[in-house]
Each structure stands twice: as C-alpha cells, then as structure tokens.
Amino acid sequence: MSVYQGDNPEHFQLAIDSIFNQTQLPDQLVLVVDGPIEDKVSDKIHGYQNQYDFLTVHVLPENVGLIKALNSGLDLCQHPLVFRMDSDDIADVNRIRLQSEFMATHPEVTLLGTQMTDFTISTEHPLPSKIMPLGHEEIQSKLPWRNPINHPTVCFRRDAVLEVGGYPDLEFLEDYLLWCLLISKGHRCHNLDRSLLYYRFDDGTLTRRSGTKNFTNEVKLRRWLLDNNLCSTPVFVITCLMQLVLRYAPITLKRYLWRRSREQP
Questions:
Q1: Contact present, 240 and 219 (Cβ < 8 Å)
Q2: Could you write out the three-class secondary structure of the chain?
Q3: How far apart are the C-alpha atoms of 12 and 38, rounded to whole Å?
Q4: Homologous superfamily of the 2-201 domain (CATH)
Q5: Confidence band of 140 (pLDDT split at 50, 70, 90)
Q6: At 265, is the pLDDT very low, low, confident or very high (cuts 50, 70, 90)?
C-alpha cells in the first residue's frame, strides 16, 4: 500500500484497518509513505507501528508518484506472494485467505484478481459493478480491448513480477501494461468469481482518467500490444478511437458510458 499527501485520513484508516481485520493476517504489510503526508495520517501510522510488528513502513523523502512508490515497496516485500491494496479502498475480511488458498492450489497461476464492488459513500449502498472475465483464455481475449483485471484486487507471485521489471513506467496504466508483460512471457492469470474489495468511486475517478496524457499513454500501451502480436491492426485502430472519445468526453457522457459498462462481461 502506498499513501501520499492527498489521501483522506478517514479513508486511509478504513483501508488499512480492513487489512488488520482479515481472517488471515498477512505475514508482512509494506506501507510506502510517498513524500510528506498529513499529521493525522502520520500519527495513525506511528500508532499502527506500535501495535503490529509485521508492519514495514518505508518513508520516501519526497513524492515520487505511484509507480516508483510501488516498485520501492515491492523491493521490500519478503514473501513470495504479494497483495496490492489502495489507501482508500476496503478489503473484504476474507480477501487474503481466499486468494492465498487459490494460489496455493493453483501453482500455474501467477496473477490473481477478483471482482470488486464500487461504492461512493458507504459499502452498504454499493453501485453497479463491472463483471471481470475469469479464466486465463478469457482474460487474454479481453486484453486488447480493456484492462481485464482490477488492479486493487490483485495478488501475484513476486519473483515473476520482478523478472519482467516490476511496474512499468507508464502513468495511469502501469498495472494494465504489467499484465500484458506477464501474459507475453507465458504467465497465466485468473479472476475469482467473487467480490473481495470495495472500490471507492465518484466523479473524480472519471475525471482522473481524462486528458491528453491518459490518451497518449493508452495509445502507447496499444502500440505495445500490436508490436508484440497481442492485438491486430484493426483492433489497434478501433481501440485508439474508442479511447479518444472516452478520454475527451464530457462528464455526463462519461457517467453514461460508465453505467453501460456495469454488469457487462
């Protein structure tokens, strides 16, 4: 988990408490402090350090951004299976146990995601959620069209991710490209048919996915897919045009497209 100046202290507490309240606790929790943070968050972290001896806190003197923060945290992970967690989402109490059990009984799987439940104010009032593909072949078939794995839900085998260089330097799409890299190297992926994470969602989520940099990086990713024979030229053109509309659409159209994407396989 990475935390930075812009994180809401209450959301952060809910997120990290959802890990401390798991039915199977992690062997280690690596928390990367990405530059200066609010005193309220800092105080909470100090309190957790006194309470949980498996908490590793890595403080970066300045804000370096999510990609570098994640890679620095990955270097500190001491165990073969790594779970990702955002600092404003809430994990189901059985998340670590169920994903760990699956990975233990499916050694051929490198990357495991789950379904997730979107919410804005309370997890008791969930929003419609997108259904993610399950098996590897279905995930690979969706790969050229959209990100088929929810990043905040994943666990993966640490060595495999390090072998492909960790999170690639492609802002907003570092997770999507990482999945592409793993699949291109023959690693298998899977999604559980169960929601094990509550994902905080609002108009700001849609706005952060807008703009020129988002679109430019989408084209770079899809060019990578094309160059590595993971998509065809027609699919490359179609998906770039789709992203052009999506990244520059007004917020009302974004909301409409978001609703249409929910509950669709």
A1: yes
A2: CEECCCCCHHHHHHHHHHHHCCCCCCCCEEEEEECCCCHHHHHHHHHHHHHCCCEEEEEECCCCCHHHHHHHHHHHCCCCEEECCCCCCEECCCHHHHHHHHHHHCCCEEEEEEEEEEECCCCCCCCCCCCCCCCHHHHHHHCCCCCCCCHHHCEEEHHHHHHCCCCCCCCCCHHHHHHHHHHHCCCEEEEEEEEEEEEECCHHHHHHCCCHHHHHHHHHHHHHHHHCCCCCHHHHHHHHHHHHHHHHCCHHHHHHHHHHHCCCC
A3: 11
A4: Spore Coat Polysaccharide Biosynthesis Protein SpsA; Chain A (3.90.550.10)
A5: very high
A6: very low
The residue ranges of every structural domain in the chain are 2-201, 206-265
Distance CA 1, CA 198 (A): 15
With a pLDDT cut of 90, the percent of the chain lying above it is 85
Residue 254 is encoded by which pair of tokens?
């974004």
Residue 197 has pLDDT above 70, yes or no: yes
Q: What is the pTM of this model?
A: 0.94
Are 112 and 102 in contact, with CB atoms under 8 Å apart?
A: yes
Backbone angles phi, psi at 183, to 5 degrees: -65, -40
